Prior knowledge:
Order of helices and strands: HHH
Strand content: under 5%
Number of helices: 3
Helix content: 55-70%
Radius of gyration: 33 Å
Distance between the termini: 86 Å
Largest sheet: none
Number of strands: 0
Bound molecules: zinc ion
Amino acid sequence: MNTIHSLIDDFTGRLNAMLERQIQDRARVAVESAFAGHQRGPGRPAAIASLAAVRPARRKGPKQLCPVPGCKDPAAPVFGMVCSKHKDLPKTKIKKYREERRAKKLKAA
Ligand SMILES: [Zn+2]
């Protein structure tokens, strides 16, 4: 019954050697690519800068107006997206106004 044991030993031994080589290869590749990345260094910040240029810096979309009909005041998130004058209106009303406004906008478009 020694042959099976020696077969298993042989197999595990080879498997270990294979795994070790793979790990070493992978580590080498990782180090090499990291090095390559370093050598490409000067090109990288430029790429990031151009990316930042494409995306406008901290632009808050179009200013939202208070949804109350006839009100031209800007809506503020602190008041639940209505103006300071209408911040005390019930939310259900505001919701209705907003829906009406949206419907009007859709019709206009
Ligand atoms: Zn208002």
